[in-house]
Specification:
The chain is built from 21 helices and 33 strands. It has about 750 residues and is of the alpha+beta class. Helix 13 crosses helix 16, helix 14 runs antiparallel to helix 15 and helix 17 crosses helix 18. The N and C termini lie far apart (about 90 Å). The C terminus is likely disordered.
């Protein structure tokens, strides 16, 4: 025990060794920690491969294939989602969202892969889709073209994430799905955006390239085609850049028609990468800003027949002119960006259309060769067995006798091999034939298959040995796909079109006069004059009061000074038209002010002539020319509007040459009246100014407001010609009549 205590003391006495800090280069840290994530997002998530599918799509479709949903009845989507989690462990919500986009009901694809029943939302709308327990799905017939040969070693199968089952690396699509199925994805440092093309035109393009590698794709694969239709504005240079480099963009606009009798416009197709809600929101915003005055109403009338956006026009409005404005100002016409980034053998490549089709052709050839080699092996094995069966035709009785005379079961196969000079596989096949089948007719029928098998084997060997025959086989498949699933273009191509003239501007807001009410709590009301004549009963919050009330032009700027030493400005017409019985717009929210920022002073100004006088609670005062608040461009906020040395007690706007008398009251009951000419004029907004009122310790300015000693002679005793002044103790009765609403 004593020895243990000695060792403990000796150990405690040893100095503590400092921690060893090992430097690690940042490049090494990124390589070991960040690069695996980056590669995972590129290879296993965001970018499509040459079969036109991302891993999430492929896992979902393969799960449905293994569930037998290529034929038969639909099943609940929840069943499919649950089964897919065996391959895709990223959660049921992500899996179902992937499924939604592949369904016929969502209308996101020209050729949907999932036949659906239920509410799956729409590509052209933000409408919500139903929960997976309510909807039903199965694979669409076109999926047979994706899975053909998958059970014949056409593609590699690998272990899933927990090595409990196999999944395909790619799907052996028999048509160039990479260009037929639209795809968008963002990885680390890479992005992909592939537009869809018409199936007929895509198949024709491959056929043309197989027959003539120098074929003119522009005459065959005319332009992209979208499930939502629309009108593609064809620009030869833009399209050539996309076809050759895989990168670029083009414009798609909505399809519409006017109904003169009902004085309305009906929009039936919109660009692929927008929604009805986005368009309506933008149009409503333009109407509120007074930039569109031809519209009476706009309605989303989507029904079972598809998209329908109705715009009711005011009498005398020109539909063509209005649509020209809308195409220019909203997403009724927008650009679709193309970035044909595709994974080829696990590596991202930016490919043009010709290169993509070439890569798909090489991939398809490899799939077919693997499938043919698999079939060839199966047929050769069967032919080998039939050749052994043919040998017993010479003497069936001999085969029966050999089996009967063999004492042990294990010797049956060797004895048959010796008796007919066949190998073990052939002998095993013969030994397994049922007794009822050991008749000459059965054996002759089986042997009759030999000639057919030999012909099929010869055809397969011919296909495998000739690239020309293999190409012809691909051509026949593509023609068959066209015949089964081809459909006319949905997106029209406008080779000749007119763009809205640059001279065509949205109408400027027409100037009008309305009644403006600003409250101390930060609310502003824009009340039409007709409305204020009917009722002037202003609704306010319990602790709020009016600080300004009067008529104002809609184009007049209002400046809002805040307790964060910032000034905001906006046109009176920017505020929503309201009624006296409503609270109005909350200015901090309308102007997107900072959190907890409050308006302390408001001033409607027609120009920035004149000056601003500020009185701080510490008794200091200062004035600036209003021009210091002039901003360049469209800036709506100016920081550092005044000094932050003390809270503001009052602000006053002075017209050029105007002089006001300001009555100032302190918290300790003293008062004075100072002319604004006594406020020092500074050119720097953040100047703290000079001492205007000499305050005692713990005293501060309580309030200040303009007065007129000419109209109130009793106030003359408070006038002070010099500063700083301590003021005099005031009589509340003297100031009650003079005090009113603060003049802003």
């Amino acid at each position: 025990m004593a020895e243990r205590k000695k060792r403990t003391k000796a150990k405690d006495a040893e100095p503590v060794k400092p921690a060893v800090i090992q430097e690690q280069p940042i490049t090494e840290t990124l390589r070991t920690n960040y690069m695996p994530y980056a590669m995972s997002s590129i290879i296993s998530r965001a970018l499509p491969e040459i079969d036109g599918l991302k891993p999430s799509h492929r896992k979902l479709l393969y799960t449905m294939y293994k569930m037998g949903l290529l034929t038969g009845n639909r099943t609940k989507s929840a069943n499919v989602v649950g089964q897919t989690m065996r391959l895709n462990p990223h959660g049921d919500a992500a899996i179902y969202e992937t499924m939604v986009r592949l369904t016929r009901g969502n209308e996101a694809l020209l050729h949907p892969f999932v036949d659906s029943k239920g509410a799956f939302g729409k590509q052209y709308s933000k409408m919500a889709y139903a929960a997976p327990r309510y909807t039903e799905v199965k694979l669409a017939p076109i999926c047979s073209e994706l899975f053909g040969g998958i059970d014949k070693d056409a593609v590699d199968l690998v272990d899933n994430y927990d090595s409990t089952m196999k999944e395909p690396v790619l799907l052996p699509s028999s048509f160039p799905n990479v260009l037929v199925c639209p795809n968008t994805g963002i990885a680390v440092g890479l992005a992909s955006s592939i537009c869809s093309f018409n199936l007929n035109e895509t198949c024709d393009a491959v056929i043309a390239l197989l027959r003539d590698p120098n074929a003119d794709l522009y005459q065959i694969l005319k332009a992209p085609d979208f499930s939502t239709g629309g009108e593609l504005l064809y620009d030869p240079e833009e399209m050539r850049q996309i076809y050759e480099t895989g990168k670029g963009s083009f414009s798609v606009r909505a399809v519409w028609h006017s109904v003169p009798k009902e004085n309305r416009i009906v929009i039936t197709e919109i660009p692929y990468n927008t929604t009805v809600e986005q368009i309506i929101e933008k149009i409503v915003q333009l109407i509120k800003e007074g930039k569109l005055r031809e519209i009476n109403d706009i309605r989303d009338e989507i029904d079972f027949d598809g998209l329908k956006l109705t715009i009711d026009l005011k009498r005398g409005s020109d539909p063509d002119k209005l649509m020209a404005k809308l195409l220019k100002a909203t997403d009724l016409e927008c650009r679709f960006p193309c970035n044909f980034n595709v994974l080829i053998a696990g590596s991202p490549h930016l490919l043009g259309v010709r290169e993509l089709l070439s890569e798909w052709h090489a991939f398809r050839c490899e799939c077919l060769k693997r499938e043919f080699y698999y079939e060839l092996g199966q047929k050769e094995a069967k032919l080998h067995l039939l050749m052994g069966l043919e040998k017993i035709l010479v003497d069936i009785d001999k085969a029966i006798a050999i089996i009967r005379k063999t004492e042990h079961e294990k010797d049956v196969i060797p004895n048959l091999c010796k008796g007919f000079e066949i190998d073990e596989k052939q002998a095993e096949y013969i030994a397994e034939i049922k007794l009822r089948h050991l008749n000459r007719q059965y054996i002759l029928d089986r042997i009759g298959e030999r000639e057919k098998l030999e012909k099929e084997i010869a055809d397969l060997e011919s296909l495998l040995s000739s690239s020309r025959k293999l190409n012809n086989y691909i051509i026949r498949q593509l023609e068959d796909v066209k015949k089964k699933y081809g459909q006319p273009r949905k997106t029209r191509i406008a080779y000749e079109y007119s763009r809205p003239s640059e001279a065509l501007k949205l109408e400027e807001e027409a100037e009008y006069t309305a009644h403006c009410v600003i409250t101390r709590g930060g609310y502003l009301k824009n009340i039409p004059l007709k409305s204020i004549m009917v009722s002037d009963n202003q609704r306010l919050k319990d602790d709020d009061s009016i600080i300004f009330s009067g008529e104002m032009s809609s184009k007049q700027e209002i400046y809002f000074f805040t307790d964060h030493q910032q000034v905001y400005h906006a046109k009176f017409g920017d505020f929503a038209i309201t009624k006296a019985s409503e609270l109005g717009d909350y200015v901090p929210a309308k102007l997107e002010m900072d959190k907890d920022e409050k308006v302390i002073f408001s001033a409607p100004l027609s120009d920035l002539k004149g000056s601003l006088a500020i009185l701080f609670e510490n008794g200091k005062g200062v004035s600036f020319p209003l021009s210091v608040y002039e901003t360049k461009g469209n800036r709506k906020r100016l920081t550092g509007a005044f000094s932050d040395g003390s809270p503001v007690a009052a602000m006053f706007i002075l017209a050029p040459g105007e002089v006001k008398e300001i009555l100032i009251k302190t918290k300790m009951g003293r008062a004075c009246i100072l002319r604004t000419t006594l406020f020092p004029e500074k050119s720097t907004r953040t100047s703290a100014g000079n001492q205007m009122v000499a305050l005692k310790k713990l005293d501060a300015i309580a309030e200040a407001f303009p007065v007129s000693t000419a109209d109130n002679p009793s106030l003359a005793i408070y006038k002070k010609p010099r500063v700083p002044t301590p003021g005099i103790i005031y009589n509340e009765v003297d100031l009650t009549d003079a005090q009113g609403k603060m003049d802003i």
